[in-house]
Amino acid sequence: MPATLIERFKRQELSVFNSAMETLVAARTAELRKELALVVAQKQELELALQRKNQGQSQLETALSDAQLLHEISAMLIDENSIGELYQKLVEAATVIMRSEFGSMQRYDPTKGALQLIAQHGLDEEAVAYWQWVKPGRATTCGKALEVGERVIVSDFEACEFISGSEDLIAFRKAGVRAAQSTPLLTRNGRLVGMITTHWTSKQLPSARDLRLLDIIARQAADLIERNISAEALRNQAERLLEADRYKDEFLATLAHELRNPLAPIKNGLTLLRIGKPEQAPRVVDMMERQLGHMVRLVDDLLDVSRISSGKVNLKHERVMLKAVIDIAVEASHPLIQANEHNFKLAIPEADVWLYADATRIAQIVSNLLHNAAKYTPVGGHIELAAEVAGGDVLIHVVDTGIGIPAAMLPQIFKLFAQVDGSAERSRGGLGVGLALSKQLAEMHRGRIDVVSGGDKLGSTFTLVLPIAQAPGAAVMSAAAAAHTPSDERSLRILIVDDNVDAAETLGALMEEVGHSICVVVDSTKALAGALNFVPDVVILDLGMPYLDGFAVARQLRSEPGLGGVYIAALSGWGTDDDRRRTREAGIDHHMVKPVKLVEIVDMLSLVSAGNAAIASPR
Ligand code: ADP
């Protein structure tokens, strides 16, 4: 082969080789690039993983330090015993968590609707006094939180709309406070019991982590306050029970004493009547009547109190004249005033004053005040009953020159069984019931009783205040006034039905003394026959009788046409509103409670005899 041909052949081969080499190099380069990209991606992944690991570790470290902090707080709380110290520790824990310079805890007082400072950290005396009580609407974070019912954060007081220009802001500047947060303390069922606040000297916005930890402290604080509230309630209840128990013991001792007092002379009186000289009898009977009256008063008062407390007293409101009511009260208290040789003065308005009230109950209040005045005023003292109209009220003053009441006892004496003291020199008998009863009765009439006293031996003034009523038309007469209006009395035919022979016969004898005709039936099954035979104007009927009780007898009498106009009065040991309702339902016109005073029967008979029986309805 010629040399040129060989040369050409070699060049061709070389170029093929070159291009083959180039293809090879390009392919290898592409492969290497891919591998490089892979390595870069792997490197990035590794870097990311490393970063994540570092982050997790720092989160773990934060959580660990939070947990440690909370653990330390819990340990600290377990160590402390006094509730005040616990509050203090919680405030301090809150300031540590929030990295704040000041902190405070308040307790919510629902009666005042305000927050009271109970623990604080870092505030000076002036600030403590200034924010002792905070009401809703105050220009503070706690005032605002109380108003809106949720956490309030103010990062800069100088730029806060509801704080700017307020007196609180001036106080905040003085105390060096620039920012604060207040978190309401809520019980597990959402009741507000207090507030925890942290304050900073510079602008501040607490982080979510800080607030989360603070919420744990707030939970503990709310539980603590709630526990304390329950403990206080229990303590108060225990104290009240102890006091009630003490009152009960004192009351039982006084009751035994008060009941024994009249029993002894009554017992002696009975012996005297049996073995003594006949001429002594009237004096003995007077004494026994007085003592019995005293016992009846005690028992009546006790019954009234229990009936008022159980809401069983219904007032019989009517238009009554003040004078008529006062007359009844004065008449009832007169014997004691006279016995103590007191100078008694009565000064009531000339003009008619009308009340819309239960006359008997108002008379009971006034008579009780007069009775006390007489009881607690030494012999020969002065007692005055004066009434005056002021605005829409009448003021009935009972003034005495007696032993007086210490200022500290003035609010106490209206409590049931309360007496100024049990010392012998003050003791005048009584159960400590009268004023409690009078106060309740006055309040049931939309009135009240006030008392003032100069103190020991300086006398007392009790004032019954009652709303006055419009004067009625001329035709309206009060029951109380009517009961004291003289009537043209006539002799009545009275049938007494009572299985207690002694009671029936003595009552019959008394009625005969007053001039009435009497028929006594002791067997209730014969009452109807007796009535048909005797044709009475009035039947006085015992209720508790064997075989046929008083209710049944009344129904028999009422179903007999020939006895249509007969007036039936029940005599019973029971006097509740329910008993009175039952007697009314049986057709009985009047209900008297044993032991009945003769004057009550005589009054009732006078009204029947004067044809005024409708007014003598039972109270
Ligand atoms: P009682 O007189 O039966 O003890 P009250 O309820 O009527 O009960 O009175 C309560 C207490 O108030 C009395 O025990 C007495 O200590 C005091 N008190 C009431 N009235 C007077 C008064 N006019 N002067 C001085 N103390 C009085």
From TrEMBL:
The modification 4-aspartylphosphate is found at residue 542. It catalyses: ATP + protein L-histidine = ADP + protein N-phospho-L-histidine. InterPro entries: CheY-like_superfamily, GAF, GAF-like_dom_sf, HATPase_C_sf, HATPase_dom, His_kinase_dom, HisK_dim/P_dom, HisK_dim/P_sf. Residues 254-470 form the Histidine kinase domain. Coiled coil: none annotated. It comes from the Bacteria. CDD domains: HisKA (cd00082), REC_2_DhkD-like (cd17580). The lineage of its organism: Bacteria, Pseudomonadati, Pseudomonadota, Betaproteobacteria, Burkholderiales. This is histidine kinase. Residues 493-609 form the Response regulatory domain. The keyword Transmembrane helix does not apply. Its EC number is 2.7.13.3. Pfam families: GAF_2, HATPase_c, HisKA, Response_reg. Keywords: Kinase, Phosphoprotein, Transferase.
